[in-house]
User: Fold these one by one.
Assistant:
Number 1:
Amino acid sequence: MTFATLGLIEPLLRSLETLGYQTPTPVQAQAIPAVLAGRDLMAAAQTGTGKTAGFALPLLQLLAMEGPKVTANSVRALILVPTRELAEQVHEAVRQYAENLPLSTYAVYGGVSINPQMMKLRKGVDLLVATPGRLLDLFRQNALKFNQLQTLVLDEADRMLDLGFSEELGNIYKALPKKRQTLLFSATFSDAIRTLAGQMLNDPLSIEVSPRNVAANTVKQWVVTVDKKRKPELFIHLLRKGKWKQVLVFAKTRNGVDALVEKLQGLGINADGIHGDKPQATRQRALDRFKSSEVQILVATDVAARGLDIEDLPLVVNFDLPIVAEDYIHRIGRTGRAGATGQAISLVCADEVNLLSAIETLTRQTLPRQMEHDFEPEHRVPDTDASGQVVKKPKKPKKPKTSSSGKRNLGKWVESGEASAPEPSIKPVRKVPVFNTGPRKRKP
Ligand code: AMP
């Protein structure tokens, strides 16, 4: 199969040739003809599967072939994305695909001055990439009209909901023309997303190119167990031992990012950090320097987890596990993209066992564990498996005591009925419920 057989026009085929895309990826093979035929889409695609081209190529073709010329302050196609970085990245991809077409494209997002964006929108743009908050600001200030809107794309829709954009999405939805094409893309699909899809989509074609909620199988994943306080030391040890060249590291909090970057820089290691407290320009600069290998280690909060496309990124390290299990898939999706192989290592301490269990349940796999010599944890990380149970092993039983009735307390597993035995040497074992990570209700 080629892009030409999917029905793409020659100016797009030329752009793809320049970019070196030879064969459509599975999501592209399914999405492109459907979008060209005017269908609404609900697409579950893994990160790194080429979904951006899957919606952008046919969208650009429709804009070039159909519809009126764009008028002042109008947009003809809107791509909504959850983060500023993703807005830049999707726009960059769109710009490259549209290279040979007479279409205007632009990206708007918060964290930067709104005035240049208002100026730019005056003439109208054919295709606008936007984050929801800034889009609404522009709309409310009359810098944007939706009367010409033909197509709406919701990219990383689940993430938009996770980030609390559901009210913004509702308000945008109310402002859009009812007659339009809508494409909903998401790496993971929750019940909330399906509800959103029910409201926004009209007889959508469902595309599912990969098993739901499974990370790319080209990514080798494992866990190194360690005590919390020794994580920085272990990271530095692994970095040196593995001679890591380029690594994206995820930490839970902004302070965590800053502390690790400071520690690494203090040791003369070439590291930088990005998180939501940093100005947009600083974040973009750090990312660009990391992409061009000027920076060896980029430490980030989950703001950087979505959609970032870093060519040939070999390694992602979860310095802390994410609070929301779905974020694990997005984080490790930064490596192993477009069929390349990658590695994802998670440093896990005993406190994080429920988070680990939730990830294993979601991805339906038990992550292999390793311990690093000299870093064996004092606080053991309880066993977990993909069934969603944390298996709490009891402490080693002391020498069995003999009860007054002469019955010996034999077990690790003391049933509640036996609790009347005098002074049982160990407590009953309880299976601990898994940390609930979101609206998805999954049976173990
Ligand atoms: P995405 O999942 O849209 O973020 O794309 C992941 C990466 O795959 C990007 O670097 C794209 O440029 C690249 N890519 C997308 N489609 C193709 C294709 N058909 N052939 C080669 N590379 C592709």
Number 2:
Amino acid sequence: MEKIYDVMIIGAGPAGLAAGTYAGRSRLDTLIIEQAKDGGQIVITAEIENYPGGIEGETGPSLVERMSKQASGFGAQKVKDTIVDVELEGEIKHLKGLNGDYYGKTVIIATGANPRPIGCPGEKELIGKGVSYCATCDAAFFEDFQIFVVGGGDSAVEEALYLAKFGRKVTIIHRRDELRAAKSIQEKAFANEKIDFLWDSVVVELSGDGILDTMVVENVKTKERTTIKADEEDGTFGVFVFIGFTPHAQLFEGKLDMENGYILTDDDMKTSIPGVFAAGDVRKKSLRQVITAAADGAIAATQAERYIEG
Ligand code: NAP
């Protein structure tokens, strides 16, 4: 007879870990299934200054480590697996993983979102060879090099500030002539002497023989194209892409109500199937932050408990 969990949580980012903490603390038999490392996107965040009560110098990995320990401390079990199919209807939900099958009374989907690529020629081939989506992971490779950051939101500008500690110059390439990022973050970037801006511009091509050394940028207003070449001495430069995310929810297409790839929930994180909840960046919401992900997780776990109690 297969074990039947009270709560199965898919994803161990802030939403999944908060759900695990709340479910575990409620003495629910809880399983967190994660395919990679705990933390989701937050582990690629260099600095978190706006998590309430956060300690100075808090980073994504440090916050996640504590969240993860906390969930385990309350008894949430963890398994490393990739869920490839789901049966969500009925009283017992069934998650099919590459390594095994999992059964439970409720499911909390906290699978998050992936960084969105530019989609231009050369980008895919040059990932890890000049193209990156993670400043924390790759900034050190570009010590004293020229760095370009694509995007104009909070992520792009915050990561540009971080990258400016490494590169000799950071150029933010944004498709409009004003940033989307919060004013307080913008102010820091405008005040940083190492950061400049390429407005109204998009990257249309990246190239290089084994390593990125050329980028073509198009002005969206004039359609003029400019080719940027790496300094001869450097031989390369970094292109860091922060232009939003794609929700990690393909598995649920046709099974749950969704919009633009995001799972639809009500205020209690309930999806269109009873006993199935979604929390964090994977659901349609107005603010995607660690704090809202954690809050979603807490609500989802509490509602899962109520659902089980009938
Ligand atoms: P975002 O807010 O959606 O911003 C994406 C940026 O990329 C926008 O400036 C957008 O331009 C640009 N963009 C989108 N598609 C593009 C394309 N195909 N080519 C070129 N540029 C493109 O995404 P985010 O910055 O990753 O932030 C996601 C969420 O996390 C937001 O809610 C954000 O507030 C939050 N966040 C918060 C913090 C913080 O508070 N510390 C840090 C990081 C993220 P347009 O402006 O023209 O649309």
Number 3:
Amino acid sequence: MRIDIITIFPEMIEGFFNCSIMKRAQTKGLAEIHLHNLRDWTTDKHRRVDDYPFGGTAGMVMKVEPVDRCITSLKAERDYDEVIFLTPDGEQFNQPMANTLSLATNVIMLCGHFKGIDYRIREHFITKEISIGDYVLTGGELAAAVVADSIVRIIPGVISDEQSALSDSFQDNLLAPPVYTRPAEYKGWRVPDILLSGHEAKIRDWELQQALERTRALRPDLLGE
Ligand code: ADE
């Protein structure tokens, strides 16, 4: 999978993609992340990518031209499955969306800034608008990093034990059960006996019950309750 991220602050997320599992996915050739500085695509001599809004409202608006030039040049090289705009008024991101997006071959992510983006970009280029939650960030960069992380980590082969991605919270609309590691007792705090029992079937059943209990207590909406 190839992800092209268009941003005015590539340095904000560069380090993120050069660490840990995101880095490993790229080293293994399973994901390519390309960061594009939008300012490289303006013809303005001051490299400005924003301007005052028509109609006199407050704040600045991202201009059409640099975004058009950048996206058009990317699309001339290859077909894209989605051109995503990260915006607080987009569709709320969730695990099923991550699962679907992880099947894509090429994706563009456009990070918004300022008051918003000239609406013509949304009308003519954007195929999907995504919000990562009901709060407003200073820009779309962290949202793009969140979405990219969640889709890259479930590409087969990225996480060595594929099972561990499949048993994530939300993969089956359940929160994950508690997990423990050695020592079995620490300061008198004991790991549940069942996990030390060696009874595989009983352990899986205990995990399911725990997952159901936690989901009912913390996220009853996932169970339709
Ligand atoms: N840009 C600013 N806030 C955002 C949010 N909540 N989700 C996606 N993009 C954003």
Number 4:
Amino acid sequence: MSKTEKVIIVGSGPAGLTAAIYAARANLSPFMIQGEEVGGQLTTTTDVENFPGFPDGVMGPELMDLFIKQAERFGTRFLSKNVTKVDFSTAPFKIWVDEEEHSAETVIISTGASAKYLGLENEKKYLGRGVSACATCDGAFYRDVPVCIVGGGDTAMEEALFLTRFASQVYVLHRREEFRASKIMAERVMNHPKVKVMWNTELKDILGDGKLVKKVSLYNNKTKEDSELEVEGVFIAIGHKPNTDVFEGQLKTNSVGYLETEPGTTRTNVPGVFACGDVQDDHYRQAITAAGTGCMAAMDAEKYLEAQEN
Ligand code: NDP
């Protein structure tokens, strides 16, 4: 086992890396277990136009590289592997990466959230070859062809509108006959000439030629009819799942599975363990808000360590 760290940060998106910058500058010499998807969700995006400080926009992967460089400059150490087990029952806290055991006086969790999928066999088969959970990342590949998007929340609305820039037709498939999305977004979608909303419609299968998607099979749960629809792109926008599996049974979560933090802080129910970014935020889910809570987590950890020493 290696020496007990002052702080281990788990996860390497905007939240974790901001926590690393602040912790490193506070001389806590943070050790970051980045996960195998280094940089988090932004590395799967193209243009980021709403991150302050970049008036001309910045590419997601480039932005995350800059975060990493800044964290590195002040002495953050990195391991690009996934955490496989944790034990937060007593301090120092234990974190395993396969057989390798690490321990820390404080832990900052910033493992983010991942897009949810429907769970269809062909969804996996055609992922990246017609199936996507990120219109912003992949929409431009579908110029002048019909696509569909599954979901009725704000993400589905936002992505459907984005897709109208490229696709010849955008079908919005929703399992009910009312959108969950805000009225203004829903109206924009329903009034768009390139969008056709299909209510009470469930996506049953994704069909292709073995290489690319060609059509989808649908079920109308009101009329009980099956049908097929020709599309070349299938976008799934049915929400996100926080990446908390490895912490199950160790930390309190809220009713939708996100890590619970004390209001206005990043403190979890275990003193010394902090959570920041999308793993504890089911509402804002922005890079800038994640970065903000990352800063808070590092300051909360620093304060906790100070109190332990006195
Ligand atoms: P939501 O949970 O709000 O919506 C998910 C949608 O997917 C719902 O319409 C749901 O249907 C549908 N769905 C869920 N599971 C399935 C399934 N297995 N099969 C078919 N359909 C399914 O997630 P979002 O990602 O849309 O939004 C998350 C949060 O982020 C919200 O608070 C939202 O307001 C916010 N947001 C805000 C934006 C903005 O303000 N610009 C942009 C994007 C998100 P049903 O309605 O029947 O449950």
